[in-house]
């Protein structure tokens, strides 16, 4: 029961991942973690990162969160409906995607490294 509570806490804090299936690319795993970091992973070892989000509005007033990855890919999420869209780098085409439910992910805290003493704390 405690593990279940911890999982819900991580999703509530914004530490989660989901699968995104969009035409033109293999299924992608999107992870959102602390400090606005978003990662994008898809086969064969393709990996991109993004820092933060920007926001825009649709004609109907819905707010849209836009995540711009380092390679130029963009993920857009209608904050009201959860509908998710993607635009590949170098393309002006916005494509609708299928998105799985959010799933809590385990956070690993790494120890600090101190080069002068070569010890960890």
Task: Show the helix and strand layout.
Layout (H helix, E strand, L loop, with lengths): L1 H11 L3 E6 L6 E5 L4 E6 L3 E6 L2 E4 L5 E6 L5 E5 L5 E4 L7 E5 L3 E2 L8 E2 L4 E2 L1
Antiparallel strand pairs: 1-2, 1-9, 1-10, 2-3, 3-4, 5-6, 6-7, 7-8, 8-9, 11-12
Protein name: C-type lysozyme inhibitor domain-containing protein
Sum this structure up briefly.
This protein has about 120 residues and is mainly β.
Q: Would you mind describing this structure in some detail?
A:
The protein has 121 residues and is mainly β. It has one domain (2-114). The protein is 9% helix and 44% strand. The chain contains one helix and twelve strands; from the N terminus they run H-E-E-E-E-E-E-E-E-E-E-E-E. The protein has one helix at residues 2-12, and strands at residues 16-21, 28-32, 37-42, 46-51, 54-57, 63-68, 74-78, 84-87, 95-99, 103-104, 113-114, 119-120. Strands 1, 2, 3, 4, 5, 6, 7, 8, 9 and 10 form a ten-stranded antiparallel β-sheet that branches. It has a two-stranded antiparallel ribbon with strand order 11-12.
